[in-house]
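Deliverable D2.4 — example input (structure tokens):
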């Protein structure tokens, strides 16, 4: 038995280490003298387990009897004096932790240290920030470097870590769902569990600790607002950030956000890591609920202005995410950020068998037989995880009557599409990131595909879905319910002939309660006074500071930028309605983006002056009516 405290410390660390098979395999390859990669660049958010992984690497290096040097950015004042390190040993393993803490350390290692190491040396550099582009741009380093982004633990590894930490079995699933597998969060939950049973009530304690770990310091209150705003929306672009903060130029703030270790970026913008988002959103929610609501109102106004642009239909996903706290959609969008690693694709031949096995598992043999029958005639859409493995699917069919399938046997004639099968391979139709990704992927198909007469959705049971389906205008169609084997399925329907896609989006927008302003408008301004104030505001809209003295500001308790955003939003509502499109055009060219004169506006619209004035009068009336309805 060891008599050194350090040995006991090391043993405890190894007992507490779980998972990371990909990262461990990469390190074993690194130790192979014939391997290509000589440098691992590990990066990930604070608390994700970089230091624990490096301790595991150190243990593996010791077992391989390799000489080792450990550098920790927390313990270095700079690169001065590091030249004196003995780095000449054959088979050296150099481990560098928290490299971002020392300015210039990454550059010094790349330029001065690594080139003079022995040829069989193995180097691991870990930090919060993504590796500098030079590592991949330089032809030499590109061949020797492997980049390893470190994410949260998977489901099984997360449960194992909780077990190792002594969390009772009955608390583990709830704790894992709350933490999303984030190692620091799991450790904090274990600490809470050791003192009392973990519950939603103790989540605030864990959130507070995480927030302090994620954000050590920020340059200014405005930077903190930018980070909090980023946490409220699904993905942040520079124009959206300007709208959320009421700024003319948010370029510097956007660049700062992009460089944070807790923020990722993709094709649609920036987004915080899940736990960082939860921590920031929860903290802002209780500290400044009015500020939180103001950000969401501004986001809703920004999204709704995009609805009329055909190329921006994907903004519906962002719009739906704002509804995560509503009773109807909340359960289905709570895991929205986790969909960022999912993708949709056509299944391989092997995955067709996987799909059928999922149907057999969740719906029985007869449903599996029918699924095979439909797969022979229609392409399924498979949902893949970050590792490329299939995790769910859906199958949309042209629902022509088929005597073998009760789902289509009694359908009314017409161009009907039915989502005949859909599921998360593990959770079936329970709320999950996969389920949500399928839902939003279907939403996009409604807006961009060839529109049928009707779309039918099938569910294993109607109860959890009725409110959410009603919210998105899919009505319960009990007459179309069907039974396969021992399972009865519920059907919901949307009729695109009655409510076409763009009108459907506009209807969703009208139901958005987030954009509603204070109800004090009725108490402050009567309807006639309100109408006069709106007409005056429209005429002043195109002038700098033109709304500064508008009585609408105090009546609605809004700032000038918020009032402008509200006007733009109501105008977008006009544009989304076919019957109001002419009025919107007159409004747009006269007040919102005004031509030089009304005669020029009439010429732009190709209208005689009298017809133009009639359209403009209608526009002012409809705009005032919609704004009044919105606020009362």
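Example output (designed residues):
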């Amino acid at each position: 038995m060891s008599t050194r405290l350090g040995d006991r410390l090391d043993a405890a660390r190894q007992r507490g280490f779980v998972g990371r098979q990909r990262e461990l395999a990469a390190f074993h390859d690194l130790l192979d003298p014939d391997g290509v990669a000589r440098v691992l660049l590990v990066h990930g958010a604070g608390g994700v387990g970089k230091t624990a992984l490096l301790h595991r690497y150190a243990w593996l290096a010791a077992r391989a009897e390799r000489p080792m040097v450990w550098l920790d950015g927390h313990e270095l004042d700079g690169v001065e004096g590091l030249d004196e390190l003995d780095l000449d040993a054959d088979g050296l393993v150099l481990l560098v932790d928290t490299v971002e803490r020392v300015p210039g350390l990454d550059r010094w290692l790349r330029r001065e240290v690594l080139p003079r190491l022995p040829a069989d040396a193995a180097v691991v550099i870990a930090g919060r920030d993504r590796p500098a582009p030079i590592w991949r741009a330089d032809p030499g380093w590109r061949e020797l470097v492997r980049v390893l982004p470190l994410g949260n633990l998977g489901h099984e590894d997360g449960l194992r870590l909780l077990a190792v930490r002594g969390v009772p079995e009955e608390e583990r699933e709830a704790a894992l769902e709350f933490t999303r597998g984030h190692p620091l969060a799991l450790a904090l939950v274990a600490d809470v569990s050791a003192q009392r049973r973990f519950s939603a009530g103790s989540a605030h304690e864990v959130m507070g600790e995480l927030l302090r770990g994620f954000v050590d310091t920020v340059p200014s209150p405005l930077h903190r607002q930018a980070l909090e705003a980023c946490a409220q929306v699904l993905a942040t672009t520079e124009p959206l950030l300007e709208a959320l903060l009421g700024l003319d130029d948010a370029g510097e703030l956007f660049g700062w956000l992009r460089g944070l270790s807790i923020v990722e970026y993709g094709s649609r913008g920036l987004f915080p890591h899940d736990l960082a988002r939860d921590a920031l959103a929860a903290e802002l929610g209780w500290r400044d609920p009015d500020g939180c609501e103001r950000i969401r109102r501004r986001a809703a106004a920004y999204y709704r202005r995009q609805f009329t642009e055909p190329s921006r239909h994907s903004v519906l996903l962002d719009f739906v995410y704002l509804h995560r706290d509503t009773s109807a959609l909340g359960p289905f969008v709570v895991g929205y950020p986790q969909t960022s690693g999912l993708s949709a694709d056509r299944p391989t031949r092997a995955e067709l068998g996987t799909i059928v096995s999922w149907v057999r598992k969740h719906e029985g043999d007869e449903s599996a037989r029918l699924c095979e029958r439909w797969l022979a005639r229609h392409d399924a859409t498979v949902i893949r995880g970050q590792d490329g493995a299939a995790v769910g699917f859906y199958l949309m069919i042209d629902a022509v009557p088929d005597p073998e399938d009760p789902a289509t046997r009694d359908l009314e004639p017409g161009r009907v599409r039915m989502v005949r099968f859909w599921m998360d391979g593990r959770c079936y139709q329970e709320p999950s990131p996969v389920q949500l990704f399928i839902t939003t992927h279907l939403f996009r198909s409604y807006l961009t595909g060839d529109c049928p007469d009707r779309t039918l959705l099938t569910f294993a049971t109607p109860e959890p879905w009725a409110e959410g389906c009603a919210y998105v205008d899919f009505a319960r169609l009990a007459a179309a319910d069907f039974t396969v084997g021992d399972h009865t399925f519920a059907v919901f329907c949307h009729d695109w002939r009655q409510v076409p896609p763009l009108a459907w989006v506009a209807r969703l927008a009208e139901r958005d309660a987030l954009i509603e302003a204070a109800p004090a408008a009725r108490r402050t301004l009567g309807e006639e006074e309100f109408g006069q104030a709106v007409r005056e505001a429209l005429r002043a809209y195109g002038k700098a500071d033109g709304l500064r003295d508008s009585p609408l500001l105090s009546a609605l308790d809004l700032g000038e930028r918020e009032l402008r955003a509200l006007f733009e939003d109501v105008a977008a509502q006009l544009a989304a309605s076919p019957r109001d499109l002419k009025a919107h055009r007159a409004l747009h060219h006269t007040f919102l983006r005004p031509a030089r004169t009304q005669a020029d506006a009439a010429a732009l619209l190709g209208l005689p002056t009298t017809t133009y004035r009639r359209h403009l009068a209608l526009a002012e009336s409809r705009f005032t009516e919609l704004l009044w309805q919105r606020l009362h």
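The first strand starts at residue 39 and ends at 43.
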